[in-house]
Design the sequence.
């Protein structure tokens, strides 16, 4: 009755990261998680929640978090204690190619009779290669695998033909790969809860284990949450694996599936019941049209949710929009990624394809209407960008400092494109954008993640920069940008000193790697082991200091009596469905609408 039907596992980027030294670069400086990308895709919660409502017992285990939290955590021992006929592993983004496939192999060694299921955007793109891997039994393709996963579990339980399962790729015993049609593509996201925070909270009580579900290392202190506006996008940014063309190639999605304003606000209410931390809205609120955005803010204003709302923009906005945001929220902040101050490069990339005057008018309007924090992001490595064009970012930010009077709310950040090109993106698919791909398979990306130097991990050179130049340029832009922010009073001496020291250590490690390049690998590894402190310093905080990206501090997690009552009722219903299933009675939820 209480036995698991599916265990969902999230792996670190590189499985044996605790036993090896490598210069990883600033690949995670501007995201909440560490360089092992321990934050699991929010789709795992919607998948688990949907299956739970269909009387399947599902548990999420964040192996990456557990491994980061404790140097003695034994993954194999933990997996031995988990018994399920199917283990699902996310391979959403390619930086998990090493960890995800190593965990798949470990599952097979610990539970030889169990089936291994992979899903996610990268798994969907490379589904046939993965289906031929002895450690992988199934790949579910697309961006909405909740219902196909139910079909798969039912087919396995009842011995029905796997050819009936939508979106499934699998190999027959003779090695023949079967690719079922990718037909499950829902029109909207209202029939699933995504993210399903209710499932996550119930699961803590059901399995009495919070550590398995923690999204990322700092989450218990800074529990930032998110609401998902859509799956798919109306924009076609060249370097984005979540772009319009990428979703068409990978997910057979012709248009985004939106979550209704009512559901988005309901998600925000759920979050507010256990956290006072900021809520981040994924995607520009306007991508489904301005009327839809206006409806969301109207409902949000009436909801009583007091959490700070953080939004992002994909194109310019004016005073009317920001006035709507201001009067609908208690506090709000904004993230804008323009990638480059060069208007021509932005036009090629596809985001904020407008003049700098329009960008600056947007910044001014946001600040005038009460934006609490405005983060402006730039990138090194976008299509056709040369080193001098990347370095021009610093002078443009100097212009913004002067224009806005060193406004403390306006902050600037830079990050490198890396470590890999996103499969399905225009940068990956179209050679005219100037990228020379080094890897074509999952296996090649997996091997690359074992390299000691992030210059060798990068999956591409561009027509404007080779890999070594991209790395050096990233550090140069970062160093100059942090100096600008310090001189302008946007960051304090401690923050600036920390980044400067991290950059010095990064260059020190790069020099050591260059000097040892002709040595055998074992000797190069020993060089890095002797530089352990410098390597650790070089792997974090070389493009921004600790706390620079934080929004309004929160009081962390809180659980009210009312919420406990709701969770108890929902958990009782879940256990009742499990009892029915145990007795042979099944109550299947209605499948989401599809295109």
Sequence:
């Amino acid at each position: 009755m209480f036995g698991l039907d599916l265990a969902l596992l999230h792996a670190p980027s590189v499985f044996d990261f605790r036993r090896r030294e490598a210069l990883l670069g600033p690949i995670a400086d501007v995201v909440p998680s560490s360089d092992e990308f321990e934050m699991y895709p929010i789709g795992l919660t919607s998948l688990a929640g949907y299956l739970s409502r269909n009387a399947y017992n599902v548990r999420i285990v964040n192996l990456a978090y557990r491994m980061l939290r404790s140097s003695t955590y034994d993954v194999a021992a933990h997996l031995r204690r988990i018994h399920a006929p199917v283990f699902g592993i996310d391979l959403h983004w390619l930086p998990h190619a090493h960890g995800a496939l190593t965990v798949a192999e470990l599952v097979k060694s610990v539970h030889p009779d169990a089936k291994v299921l992979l899903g996610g955007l990268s798994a969907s793109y490379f589904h046939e290669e993965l289906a031929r891997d002895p450690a992988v039994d199934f790949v579910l393709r697309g961006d909405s695998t909740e219902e196909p996963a139910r079909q798969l579990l039912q087919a396995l339980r009842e011995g029905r033909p796997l050819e009936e399962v939508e979106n499934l790729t699998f190999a027959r015993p003779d090695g023949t790969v079967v690719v079922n049609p990718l037909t499950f593509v829902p029109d909207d996201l209202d029939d699933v809860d995504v993210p399903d925070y209710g499932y996550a909270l119930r699961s803590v009580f059901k399995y009495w284990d919070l550590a398995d579900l923690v999204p990322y290392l700092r989450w218990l202190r800074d529990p930032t949450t998110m609401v998902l506006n859509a799956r798919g996008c109306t924009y076609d940014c060249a370097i984005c694996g979540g772009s319009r063309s990428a979703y068409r190639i990978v997910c057979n999605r012709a248009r985004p599936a939106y979550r209704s304003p009512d559901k988005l606000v309901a998600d925000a209410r759920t979050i507010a019941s256990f956290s006072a931390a900021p809520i981040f809205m994924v995607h520009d609120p306007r991508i489904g049209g301005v009327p839809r955005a206006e409806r969301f803010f109207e409902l949000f204003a009436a909801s009583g949710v007091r959490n700070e709302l953080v939004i992002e923009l994909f194109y310019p906005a004016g005073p009317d929009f920001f006035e709507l945001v201001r009067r609908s929220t208690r506090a709000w902040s904004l993230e804008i990624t323009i990638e480059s101050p060069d208007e021509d490069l932005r036009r090629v990339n596809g985001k904020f394809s407008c003049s700098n005057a329009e960008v600056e008018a947007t910044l001014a309007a946001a600040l005038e209407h009460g934006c609490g924090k405005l983060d402006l992001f730039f990138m090194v490595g976008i299509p056709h960008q040369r080193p001098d064009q990347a370095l021009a970012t610093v002078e443009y930010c100097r212009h913004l400092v002067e224009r806005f009077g060193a406004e403390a709310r306006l902050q600037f950040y830079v990050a490198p494109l890396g470590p890999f090109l996103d499969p399905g993106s225009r940068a990956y698919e179209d050679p005219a954008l100037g990228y020379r791909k080094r890897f074509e398979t999952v296996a090649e990306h997996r091997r690359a993640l074992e390299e000691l130097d992030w210059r060798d991990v990068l999956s591409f050179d561009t027509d404007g920069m080779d890999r070594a130049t991209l790395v050096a340029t990233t550090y140069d832009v970062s160093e100059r940008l942090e100096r600008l922010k310090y001189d302008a009073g946007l960051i304090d001496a401690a923050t600036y000193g920390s980044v400067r020291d991290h950059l010095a250590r990064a260059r020190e490690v790069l020099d050591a790697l260059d000097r040892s390049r002709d040595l055998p690998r074992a000797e190069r590894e020993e060089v890095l082991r002797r530089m352990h402190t410098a390597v650790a310093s070089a792997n974090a905080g070389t493009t921004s200091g600790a706390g620079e990206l934080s929004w309004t501090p929160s009081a962390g997690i809180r659980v009210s009596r009312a919420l406990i009552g709701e969770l108890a009722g929902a958990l009782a219903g879940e256990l009742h469905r499990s009892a029915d299933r145990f007795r042979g009675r099944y109550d299947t939820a209605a499948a989401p609408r599809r295109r």
Remarks:
- The longest helix spans residues 493-515.
- The mean pLDDT is 92.
- The longest strand covers residues 332-339.
- The chain has three domains: 6-192, 223-491, 492-544.
